[in-house]
Amino acid sequence: MSSSSLKIQKPTNAKFLLVLSLSVLMTAVFLLLGAPLLRVLRNVFGVWKYWISGTLLTAGLLVFGSGTGLLGLMLFSTWVTIGMYQEFEERGRGNFWTAVLSVLVGSAVLILGPFLWSHLFGTDLVVQLKSDIEAVTQQLSGGKKLSDYGVTVDVILAQLPATLIVLNLTALAFALMLDRRIAVLFALPFEKVASQMRLLEFRVPDVMIWVTMLSFLLSFLSLKEVWVSTVATNFFWVMMGLYFFQGLAVLEVSLLVFRVGSFMRLLIYLLVVGQLFFLLSPVGVIDYWVDFRRRLKKWRLPEKNQKHGENV
């Protein structure tokens, strides 16, 4: 969308309330959809409005009781992740490690929040969460319980930290990929911030491959200390979430190298990302040894030398 078709307007309080309301609504419907709006909210309307509105909204949802308490914690978790990484970016420190730190701090809000809430107010959000998991399972399986599949709620809760971290990781990735488009959609000026995070160049640090392999090994060993296997399994799933985006970067570079058209690109993304997303994580892991993008660029180098054309 060009600037001529949609003129950038000065940020107003009405626009602030609109973006704020939509970000809360989208986060309530599906965690990931609210993240780009929160990114725009922080970038366009500034640090004070962002943090004050997030704190007040969360406090309000928590005060209403356990029914909205989980929503409040979920909202503030994403709020912290997006806002904290923006703070790092504005100080010239937007990179892989600060992104991971932002995700971990934001996830801690959602992981530790229910226990703190239970201790302070005597309302057990964990019990409500267990009940919600059972209810969703029965709804999706036509009335069957988790026990019918040989799985307990406690087993699912043990893997919940990894799930929440991966969700926050994906929310941050969505925010970084869609922020400018969302700002243009609302005719808002989006300030570009220097960052070391680039989708086409994204690569998990080499040392993390050993963390991945060790966590994979420990998750399958029958150890006396059960918590070791539980922690290792959570680490492994978080690493798979990180390598998913490395695999996604390989896919995107491949589409550029082979000059895949827009329609075919959309079909590939719908198939691979929407249905076969679990294949991208192994591709990301294998990329550590194979370096697909370097090979693709090297393969295309003769053609680039002839045409002096586009870069990948």
Radius of gyration: 21 Å
**Which stretches are poorly predicted, pLDDT < 50 over at least 5 residues?**
308-312
Give the tally of β-strands: 0
Distance between the termini: 23 Å
Helix share, percent: over 70%
What's the order of the H and E elements?
HHHHHHHHHHHHH
Count of helical regions: 13
Task: State the domain count.
Answer: 2
Give the CA-based shape: globular
- In terms of DSSP E residues, the strand content is under 5%
Q: What can be said about the biggest beta sheet? A: none
Mean pLDDT: 82
SS-based class:
mainly alpha
Feature tags:
single chain; 312 residues; mainly alpha; 2 domains; 13 helices; disordered C terminus
What can you tell me about this protein's structure?
It is a single chain. By secondary structure, the protein is mostly helical. The protein has two domains: 1-195; 198-312, no CATH class. It has helices at 13-29, 31-45, 47-63, 66-90, 96-121, 125-140, 153-158, 160-185, 208-220, 226-257, 262-272, 280-290, 292-307. Helix 2 (31-45) crosses helix 4, helix 8 packs parallel to helix 10 and helix 10 (226-257) crosses helix 12 (280-290). The radius of gyration is 21 Å and the shape is globular. Mean pLDDT is 82; it is low at 308-312.
